[in-house]
Design brief:
The complex is a heterotrimer of chains A (275), B (574) and C (566). Chain A is mainly α and 275 residues long. Chain A has 2 domains: 3-132 and 245-269, no CATH class; 138-241, no CATH class. Chain A has 10 helices and no strands. The longest helix of chain A has 34 residues, at 99-132. Chain B is of the alpha+beta class and 574 residues long. Chain B has 3 domains: 34-104 and 140-225, Jelly Rolls (Sandwich), CATH 2.60.120.10; 250-372 and 384-396, Jelly Rolls, CATH 2.60.120.10; 407-572, no CATH class. In chain B, strand 16 (478-480) and strand 17 (487-489) form a beta hairpin. In chain B, helix 2 (51-58) runs antiparallel to helix 8 and helix 12 (319-327) packs across helix 13. Chain B is globular, with a radius of gyration of 26 Å. Chain B starts with 24 loop residues before the first helix and ends with a helix. In chain C, a hairpin with a 2-residue loop joins strand 5 (474-477) and strand 6. Chain C has helices spanning 100-124, 128-132, 144-150, 172-184, 189-192, 203-211, 245-252, 255-266, 300-303, 324-329, 342-345, 360-364, 386-394, 396-408, 413-430, 434-443, 509-512, 529-535, and strands spanning 23-24, 53-55, 64-66, 97-98, 474-477, 480-484. In chain C, the strands form 3 sheets. Chain C has a two-stranded antiparallel ribbon with strand order 1-4. Helix content of chain C is 29%, strand content 3%. With 566 residues, chain C is mainly α. The chains are: A mainly alpha (275), B alpha+beta (574), C mainly alpha (566). Chains A and B meet through helix 1, helix 3, helix 4 and helix 9 of A and helix 15 and helix 17 of B.
């Protein structure tokens, strides 16, 4: 089905590997010839980093015909990986040991690693979200959660006069109200844990035995609402992750750029003649 | 302060911006003395839209010089013309090349104004802007045809004389102009009437209605028939014969969107409530061509009906069966599928007899449709999946569930439908933000909508092939762009009546409360907020097309034409 | 997710979602955002649900207030506006919250601020030197002593960086200017891909403040080189890394530079190339080629020339007669029960790098004794000066008497005289006169008739003392004692190279030195360049860098001044 996408990925991966191999081969050739090669790889690295950062500017200019964001992202991802290769060449086998260079290197590694992580979850999570359902706009989640809670409360209250019993209402206050009150565990819902849901639905099914016919239909509706709330919690967790990784990637990018510019100044100011 | 007081603020009304400022009382009086207006009875018109007011506000007078182009083939137009003096020539065939008629390029913002959106976009939602991006009454520059005698030699033309109407096809059917018309003679004076005005004239005067209907059918027929592929094999005489035999028919309700919405809300946009044009298993006695609107082709499976395809404008039904029966009279087949209209649909019906006598003998043997496998008619296996039609053009290549999803929701109407692959969409909302950046910081769609598996059709204007939103607009604020045909709303003339938003079956039009520069909601003198209809304009004045599609980093969002499945299939298999 | 996916929850589709906004109504979390929303700067603007409007009918003075709440928000309220024209339904104020994206912007700004602030503190603070140091310095350029030396310079020393980087205390803006200057000059783009970027920098004067004495290579060098052209600092603790072969080849592999150097060298007086002698070390005599050492060399294995000592026509000019082949393989008596081997004569010096000089006393006398009298093994000719030998021979009776007293214990004068007479008589029986004895001692080479056999032959027919000429070049000088040309045995055969025998113990001597086949003293049995390449080359895999053998630096000649910074 997705053969064109797969083909495109294969071509791009091949290109990346070829470019990396070519760069590494050329680097090995001239490594000892050009004493100032580190400056050259450094400029290339800085250029690539600026190019990668330009993607952010592209996103701020949607009204200009600057190629589609899709091409930019593709380029961003593959050029990003290539930049990591250039970074290794720039290190030239030396582990940065000074404080400044250490911070610089860690910034680079963090930005690259967060980028790869983001790429990965961008490919993995959407499928899970689509499968799980309960699709909702992130900004509307508080509103939806409140709606669900009000609906559930209304169901529980409605059952009292209908059945002349408080069984369902009691059950609601005892076990369900906390569930509707706020988003449930971020990590467990992200991991797709169904323990809480299963437990709630299980004890609801248990309670059903003591319900009147009028209450049972309310209980079924309540079960539906519980499922929907659970799905919304998952959507919230997943969307938070999908948005959250950029909280690392983008801020550190700017830190990295600042450190890189100071690095450029330092290595030029304290350059030892031939090197 | 939460709401503006401004008691003087007048709610916009239908004729706040008349079609032309230049038309005078004397002009109106002159017109009222001319046929057909002099024969109209003013008492048939309602008080708030009198004949004189219609002419004054929805009409304009214009003088054309010799060879000046009045309408261009392919442009979208929302007005009809009446020749007051002089004459006009219609170019029948062959068509004039685009370079001769001087189709203008779509107008875009300048590059500086594009970049300026970075800082000049409103800080507040839905801020009222004094200046509109494009006025509806935007004047085209005049284009003159050169060397008319030569042109008349090469192209067949017809002359329209004083007192005749033209341009009503585009005005009434929301279609592009079918041919180019230019002025002939030193001075041709035309009365141009907006379609809202024409509609009111037709509504309130039966003679105008009959007259317009008459010429509409007469002129449109040849244009429509020319779109059928097999017509190209016919001689002029044969074409005339086919034309003479062809019938116009209309199915369904005019306001199909309302009907559909009701059904959808009831949870049963059921197949059974749709009007059937032809039934599977009946004897094929005519070829049906969809002129406007949509029909679905279904096949009975067990107790239900299964949608195999939907047919849009220009597609035919029943030709294969008739061709088969003509070639194999000893082994005739009945109709293979049922044809049901989805809402208001115009069709042309060509009787089988004409097809057999005139059309089929003229078609070269190799171009005839393939014979139909008769043993697939075995209805004893009701749950066997039927073969998809093999006609290549109509063969659907999506699974039946998706087909049903698209049909139930009438998504095939869209020419620029926003389809999102939810397996790739990371919900980053880059599309929405791009949309807001290009629309004064206001998004113009909602990234939500009906979803089937991983395919979401977002609630963004689909720029329908048949934009029912335009049907009820009292001012013509919602109109087709003359060049590309995008459906756009002119905020200056929108009076916030919500008709279009109610009509749209796809929830693509949203009413918004206008705000002042300080963010206060503007309230008109009737104590209600000033509303404007808003929707996707396909970034008509931006560079590079729809910003949403270009802003999607994950190749998840696509604006596509769902009139045919080709684009969807190609995209699904990307 | 085994069961069917959950349908999307209902939410209000009639209004746009605006993810581009920076502020969200604080009531959103409670599910009820207000109609007007926060201002662009994040202030709550909620006041009342409507702003009533005053209706003034004609003739009325006061008018009536009318509710303007729209239908979608509940329509006109039942209670109506207050008499003073305010709305009766106040909206509770909220505290607008930032959107997620706006918060991300805050984080971005915070990280930028933290980076800039942190850098300002670190680059101006007390720990600055430690902070920007890319890697530890070599052992030589660090430590208290080095810092103490640097302390002689004005200003604080910090980590001692200022000893080399004089500008470090001038602050960030000066660094920026330096960086721009470096970017325009030595580090301009064309230089980055140059194999010869040898420009001087501000570092060099710092190096030369300590290292002036050894920064000289050859007077004909085509282009002086910055110290950092070869020497890398900040490569971690320990010694500075060896200079890579490619750094030498940068110049020596460049024909243009070599030609320029040759031209310069030819125009210079030979005296400028005179090398300071190493005291007490005998060098193999050689002459400097007119063009200097300017052959193009890329690496030892590929195009290093054959050692000059092995060039055709080169001979060992040592006058001593010695046959390596005979000593190693000939039919000669065992020494201490073992056959002779290289180490019997060639012993490493204390460093192990070179061999001790071969001396007669240590290495020859054991076999080649100077006993000229067969019957008296204790009687040995002196070695070293022909005049002493002649004096010894001319005072033989006295020598015998001393011998009798010291070695034989004959103390009586008569017995002594009797012993001397007896020995002299016996000598005379063999050599007819004192002159003849002298001639035999000096000129006998155990080969020719009359002068052979001074002291008879041992069992193998070998002379115990074959005569001086057996080994030495002896020349008669009339009445004076014959001249014995002093042997010259070079301590260094390849004076331009360093070598360490102890580093080559896994190789047998004869693998490199063709001693077993050498019969003449004039044979040069130094290893050939090719035999070195066997191991020090791509095939052998042993390091073949130039600095394995060569040293770049020479003591500068008088009058040389260090180059200045560009």
């Amino acid at each position: 089905m997705r053969h064109r996408l797969a083909l495109r990925r294969a071509v791009l991966v091949t290109l990346l590997v070829a470019a990396s191999a070519a760069a590494a081969w050329k680097f090995g050739q001239v490594r000892l010839l050009y004493p100032r090669l580190a400056y050259l790889t450094g400029w290339i690295l800085l250029g690539l980093m600026l190019l990668l950062t330009l993607y952010n500017s592209r996103k701020k200019l949607p009204f200009l015909p600057l190629l589609s964001s899709r091409l930019w992202l593709q380029a961003h991802a593959y050029v990003g990986l290539f930049t990591a290769v250039v970074f290794l060449l720039h290190l030239n086998g030396r582990a940065p040991s000074g404080w400044f260079e250490g911070v610089l290197a860690w910034l680079f590694v963090s930005v690259t690693a967060s980028g790869i992580f983001g790429w990965w979850i961008s490919r993995v999570l959407p499928k899970r979200m689509t499968t799980a359902g309960g699709e909702v706009l992130f900004e509307r989640i508080p509103i939806v959660r409140r709606d669900l809670r009000l609906q559930a409360e209304a169901l529980a209250l409605k059952a009292i006069p209908e059945a002349r019993a408080t069984t369902l209402a009691d059950f609601y206050t005892r076990e369900v109200s906390a569930f509707f009150a706020e988003p449930q565990g971020f990590w467990s819902s992200l991991a797709g844990s169904r323990r809480r849901l299963t437990a709630l639905l299980g004890s609801l099914a248990e309670t059903k035995r003591y319900l009147t016919a009028a209450e049972i239909s309310s209980a079924d509706r309540l079960a539906e609402l519980i499922r929907q709330k659970d799905a919304v919690d998952f959507q919230r967790s997943a969307q938070l992750v999908l948005k959250g990784w950029l909280f690392v990637h983008i801020p550190l990018t700017y830190g990295l750029l600042i450190f890189s510019l100071v690095h450029v100044m330092l290595v030029h100011a304290f350059a030892g003649g031939a090197r | 302060m939460s709401l503006s007081t401004a008691p003087g603020l007048q709610r916009p009304k239908r004729w706040d911006s008349p079609f032309s400022e230049d038309i005078t009382d004397a002009d109106v009086q002159r017109l009222l003395r001319l046929a057909p207006f002099k024969d109209m009875r003013p008492e048939n018109f309602p008080r708030n839209a009198s004949l004189a007011e219609i002419l004054r506000n929805d009409g304009r007078l214009k003088l054309y010089k010799d060879g000046e182009i009045i309408v261009r083939q392919g442009d979208y137009g929302t007005s009809a013309f009446m020749v007051l003096s002089g004459s006009a020539e219609v170019v029948l065939h062959p068509d004039l090349p685009p370079s001769v008629v001087g189709r203008r390029e779509p107008s875009r913002r300048g590059i500086f104004r594009a970049i300026a959106q970075l800082w000049s976009n409103a800080k507040e939602d839905e801020m009222e802007r004094a200046r509109n991006r494009r006025g509806a009454g935007e004047e085209d520059r005049s284009v003159f045809l050169q060397d008319i005698p030569v042109l008349l030699n090469r192209h067949k033309t017809a002359t329209i004389h004083a007192g005749s109407f033209f341009g009503e096809i585009a005005a009434l059917s929301r279609m592009p102009r079918t041919s180019t018309i230019f002025a002939r003679g030193p001075s041709t004076e035309l009365l141009e009437v907006r379609w809202q005005g024409l509609r009111d004239l037709m509504r309130n005067d039966s003679r105008v209605r009959e007259y317009i209907d008459g010429i509409y059918r007469e002129r449109a027929l040849s244009t429509y028939l020319a779109e059928i592929p097999f017509m190209k094999y016919l001689s002029e005489d044969a074409k005339q014969q086919v034309m003479a035999a062809t019938q116009f028919e209309t199915y369904g309700d005019y306001d199909w969107s309302g009907e559909y919405k009701k059904l959808a809300q009831a949870g049963t946009a059921a197949i059974g409530k749709e009007q059937v044009v032809a039934t599977e298993g009946d004897y094929p006695n005519s070829v049906v061509m969809i002129r406007a609107g949509f029909a679905r082709m279904t096949q009975r499976v067990g107790d239900g009906h299964r949608t195999l395809n939907y047919l849009g404008s220009g597609r035919t039904y029943g030709f294969e069966e008739i061709a088969h029966n003509w070639r194999k009279p000893e082994n005739p087949v009945p109709l293979q599928y049922s044809l049901r209209v989805l809402g208001y649909t115009h069709v042309l019906v060509i009787p089988a007899a004409v097809i057999e006598q005139v059309v089929l003998p003229a078609i070269p043997a190799g171009q005839l449709p393939p014979l139909i496998e008769t043993d697939s008619q075995d209805t004893s296996a009701p749950f066997a999946l039927p073969e998809m039609p093999q006609d290549g053009e109509t063969a659907p290549r999506v699974n039946a569930d998706l087909m049903e999803f698209l049909t139930q929701n009438r998504f095939f109407n869209g020419t620029e439908t926003m389809v999102i692959d939810m397996d790739r969409c990371t919900r980053c909302d880059d599309c929405v933000r791009a949309c807001a950046s290009t629309h004064d910081n206001n998004p113009r769609f909602l990234r939500a909508g009906p979803t089937h598996d991983n395919i979401m059709v977002a609630q963004a204007c689909m720029h329908c092939a048949d934009p029912v939103c335009m049907v009820g607009c009292p001012t013509g604020a919602i109109h087709r762009d003359a060049f590309e045909g995008e459906v756009v709303i002119n905020p200056a003339t929108c009076i916030g009546c919500t008709t279009c938003a109610t009509n749209c079956p796809y929830e693509a039009i949203r009413m918004v409360e206008q705000r002042a520069t300080d963010g206060e909601i503007l309230v008109a003198s009737d104590f209600k907020p000033i509303l404007k209809a808003t929707k996707c304009d396909l970034c008509i004045d931006q560079y590079g097309g729809p910003a949403c599609e270009r802003a999607c980093p994950h190749d998840a969002l696509k604006r596509m034409n769902l009139n045919t499945l080709d684009e969807l299939v190609g995209w699904l298999q990307r | 997710m085994s069961d069917a996916s959950v349908p999307p929850p209902d939410f209000d589709h009639s209004r746009y979602e605006r993810p581009n906004k920076d502020w969200i109504c604080g009531n959103t979390a409670d599910g009820c955002p207000c109609r007007i929303g926060p201002s662009p700067r994040g202030e709550c603007r909620a006041t009342t649900e409507c702003k009533p409007q005053l209706i003034l009918q004609e003739g009325e003075e006061k008018g009536t207030w009318k509710c303007t709440r729209p239908k979608e928000w509940g329509g006109a309220c039942a209670q109506g506006p207050q008499p003073d024209g305010t709305c009766c339904n106040a909206i509770p104020k909220c505290r607008p919250s930032r959107s997620l994206r706006n918060r991300r912007g805050l984080v971005v700004r915070a990280v930028i601020a933290a980076s800039v602030g942190g850098l300002i503190i670190a680059l101006t603070g007390a720990q600055r030197d430690r902070f920007i140091n890319p890697a530890p310095l070599s052992a030589r350029h660090t430590g208290p002593e080095f810092v103490r030396m640097a302390a002689g310079l004005p200003g604080p020393t910090g980590e001692g960086c200022v000893a080399c980087h004089r500008e470090i205390n001038s602050g960030v803006s000066r660094w920026g200017k330096d960086a721009i200057r470096a970017g325009r000059t030595s580090l301009r783009f064309a230089n980055l891909v140059s194999t010869h970027p040898k420009d001087f920098s501000q570092i060099d004067p710092s190096c030369l403040s300590c290292h002036r004495a050894s920064s000289f290579h050859q007077p004909d060098i085509a282009r002086e080189i910055s110290c950092s052209g070869c020497h890398l600092e900040h490569q971690g603790p320990g010694p500075m890394p060896r200079v890579a072969m490619e750094r030498c080849a940068d110049c020596h592999g460049d024909a243009e530079q070599m030609a320029a150097a040759a031209a310069r060298g030819r125009a210079m007086p030979a005296a400028r190339f005179a090398k300071a002698a190493m005291p007490g070390v005998v060098l193999f005599p050689r002459e400097r080629p007119a063009e200097g050492f300017t052959r193009v060399i890329h690496s030892f294995a590929t195009d290093h020339p054959e050692f000059r000592v092995n060039q055709p026509g080169m001979r060992d000019r040592n006058p001593l007669l010695f046959n390596h082949a005979v000593h190693l393989a000939g039919d000669i008596p065992l020494l201490n029960g073992k056959p002779l081997e290289c180490a019997s004569c060639h012993q490493p010096d204390t460093s192990g790098a070179f061999m001790q000089r071969v001396t007669f006393e240590q290495n020859c006398r054991a076999c080649h004794s100077l006993q000229f009298d067969e019957r008296n093994p204790g009687m040995q000719l002196p070695h070293g000066d022909s005049a002493y030998v002649r004096a010894y021979l001319r005072s033989l009776p006295a020598q015998y008497a001393d011998y009798a007293a010291a070695k034989l214990g004959i103390t009586g004068r008569t017995e002594q005289q009797k012993f001397v007479d007896q020995q002299m008589r016996s000598l005379r029986e063999k050599t007819r006169s004192g002159e003849l004895l002298e001639e035999q001692v000096f000129f006998s080479d155990a080969k020719q008739g009359p002068v052979s056999g001074v002291a008879g032959l041992d069992r193998s027919g070998r002379a115990k003392f074959a005569g001086c000429a057996y080994c030495h070049e002896v020349t008669a000088r009339g009445s004076a004692a014959p001249e014995i040309t002093p042997p010259v045995m070079p301590d260094r055969w390849l004076p331009h190279a360093q070598f360490n025998h102890s580093a080559h113990t896994q190789v047998h001597c004869t693998t490199c030195h063709a001693a077993a086949r050498s019969q003449a003293t004039s044979d040069i049995i130094m290893p050939t360049q090719q035999s070195c390449v066997e191991c020090h080359g791509p095939k052998g895999g042993v390091n073949a860098g130039c600095s394995e053998c060569h040293s770049y630096h020479n003591p500068p000649p008088a009058g040389w001044r260090p180059p200045t910074t560009q």
